[in-house]
Amino acid sequence: MTHAISTADFAPDTAAIAAVIIGVTAFAVAQGLTYPLISLVLEHRSVPQSLIGFNAGCFAAGLGTATFAVGALTRLVRGDRLIVGGLVGCALSLSVFASSDNFWVWCVARFSLGVCVSLIFMLSEAWLNTACPDRLRGRISGLYGAGMCGGFAAGPLAIPLFGTKNGFAFALLAVYVACVAFLTVILTRKARTQPEQAASGALFSFVRRAPLLVGMVAAFAIADIAAISAMPVYFVRLGYSESFAAISVTILALPTALAQPLVGWFLDKTSRSGVALASALIAGLSFIAIPFLESQAAILIAFGIMGTASFSLYTCALTILGERFAGEALVAGSAAFALAYAIGSAAGSSTVGAVMDIYSPAAGPMTAGSVVLAFAVFYGLSLLRSRARSSS
User: Fold this and answer.
1) DSSP tag of 167
2) Residue 305, CB-side half-sphere exposure with 13 Å CA sphere
3) Residue 221's domain spans which residues?
4) Would 154 be classed as within a structural domain?
5) Which of 139, 184, 256, 265 has the greatest count of CB atoms below 10 A from its CB?
6) Of 331, 273, 320, nearest to 130 (Cα)?
């Protein structure tokens, strides 16, 4: 069964799409480096896993805080300028990691990074869906996902190159993000479209209208945060090197980036809800399989499959959002996605970190996989109920 095209056809706004993809790629490089690097640095300093999870939770708190401010901000400042401001804020936050060793200062910087990243996320997603027609929505969402995953893959490569004992990797990343902000300014001047403003109260209205989409992003967030934050520590505790732990995040992201355009093709040509269900099932089963694998090659293959499937949930949610909603509902939906990601990542980082401390390292991936499988079951049952109602 194929989806129904719900919006008029038009030429895509290539400048806007390029600005969005380049900006989100820069954010992804930052997140791909900071999540494993901060975790490994704090682990090296003998910080308890619970506090490492708290630090990651500060990032999630920043994500959540920004969702409640985006409506007022878009009424005061143009959306494309807010994206540039978010990139500049990311660069400044990263410079703090390079210049300070204080754990609590890092928590504040992580919170600030979360606020800035959330603005980039929400406005980029809304702008992307405004700038492309529905006939290309899945494939453009796939390119967006590929840029994001490519950034996740590239970020951890700085760890083997520059190590974890100084702030050079953070400083280099701050300069890179600042350069991307400048390039984004140039591209936005050529764009024909702008991100929409968000109406007051639209966020919670969207959650009531599309709870399954919000739940899909929350499931992705739990899987994502477990993969890039807790799993590097999981590998170190099992006796693998820090380099292997960092490279595993790259292996997680690289096939994910390459696969997203193909996922986008399936979303445009087949059932979008079917692709989402298959992604959730594969992601959950891959997580659960990892503790039972012994060879490094098998672990990395499972990691790559898990990353591809879990991120496909986000690509599915973004595509279905643009298919079903338009105008200010896109910003509201993107804000709801950011809030769901914040809640999911906060719950995922704290829960997975806690079960690894209390039980064993293997409890981390088992817990994350079980949560994603639970969503898959609920989503599948919801689809069956919808089909039963439509056929009766």
Assistant:
1) S
2) 18
3) 14-391
4) yes
5) 256
6) 331
Helix axes 296-324, 211-225, angle to 10 degrees: 160
- 3 in any annotated domain: no
Instruction: Count Cβ atoms within 10 A of the Cβ of residue 76 and give its class: 0-12 exposed, 13-18 middle, 19 or more buried.
Output: exposed
Q: Is residue 7 part of a domain?
A: no
Residues ≥6 apart with Cβ < 8 Å to 144: 20, 21, 24, 124, 128, 260, 315, 318
Q: How many residues does the chain have?
A: 392
Is 8 part of any domain?
no
How many structural domains compose the chain?
Answer: 1
Residue 370 pLDDT > 90: yes
pTM, rounded to two decimals: 0.75
pLDDT (tens digit, 9 = 90+) per residue, 86-99? 889 988 988 888 88
What does the block give as tokens for 266? 């399936």
- Per-residue tokens: 268: 């445009």
Q: How buried is residue 12: exposed, middle or buried, by Cβ count under 10 Å (0-12/13-18/19+)? A: middle
Collapse the DSSP code of 27 into the 3-class scheme (helix H, G, I; strand E, B; otherwise coil) and give the result.
Answer: helix
Give the pLDDT band of residue 374 (cuts 50, 70, 90).
Answer: very high
